[in-house]
TrEMBL record:
Family from the record: Belongs to the mitochondrion-specific ribosomal protein mL43 family.
GO biological process, one term: mitochondrial translation
Molecular function in Gene Ontology: structural constituent of ribosome
GO cellular component: mitochondrial large ribosomal subunit
Protein name: Large ribosomal subunit protein mL43
Cell compartments where the protein resides: Mitochondrion
Lineage: Eukaryota, Metazoa, Ecdysozoa, Arthropoda, Hexapoda
Source organism: Temnothorax curvispinosus
Length: 198
């Protein structure tokens, strides 16, 4: 196993500041295509420049494209991003389709991805002084002494009455109120009847 990742710049995964707030800002600002006019390893790069470069420049007006011919050298793509990162990539013996794919990848990235060693897979600007939350964070410490199986702890947690139980209670209360009103009307009718007899 290689230890070369230990010498990479370390950091946390994060999005560029303000990206996606209001509008999308392409992070690729400048791309330089270095190639040889006669060398065989530059055949794919020359095909890209002859057939696809004009369309690429029209579709991405915010990206400045430089074409730099140099003799007897391997073809190279140098991408410069808004945050100051530079990605250098050698594309010797790549086909034209491969160069198109790598150009699209460099356009959609916001930095040189492989050059950053991640310290952690998550990061927050406001860390908690209590540590990360777990399901046992606010539990009673006496649970550590409980003997299992325990019927009390194993029972389902019931926080409040369900909607069905609330409807049943309302129905019972309504029936009691109806019975009370019926009883009071019967009592009043009985009182009237007895008063009429007297």
């Amino acid at each position: 196993m290689s230890n070369k990742y230990l010498f990479l710049k370390s950091g946390f995964p994060r999005a560029p500041f303000g990206l996606g707030i209001g509008r999308y800002v392409c992070q690729l600002q400048r791309i330089t295509l270095k190639f040889c006019k006669s060398h065989g390893t530059s055949r794919g790069m020359r095909g890209f420049i002859e057939h696809d470069l004009v369309n690429y420049a029209k579709e991405n007006p915010g990206v400045v494209v430089y074409v730099k011919p140099r003799r007897h050298r391997h073809p190279v793509i140098v991408a410069e991003y808004l945050n100051g990162d530079r990605q250098w990539m050698e594309v010797a013996n790549y086909s034209q389709e491969d160069v198109v794919k790598w150009m699209e990848l460099l356009r959609t990235q916001f930095r040189n991805g492989p050059s950053l060693r991640l310290r952690k897979l998550w990061h927050t600007e406001f860390p908690s002084i209590q540590g990360p939350w777990t399901p046992f964070t606010f539990r009673n410490p006496m649970l550590n002494l409980a003997q299992f199986p325990n019927e009390e702890l194993g029972a389902a947690i019931k926080l409040g009455p369900t909607a069905t139980e609330q409807l049943v209670e309302l129905f019972k209360a309504q029936q009691l109120a109806d019975n009370a009103t019926n009883d009071s009307t019967k009592v009043s009718q009985d009182v009237e009847q007895t008063s009429e007899r007297i």
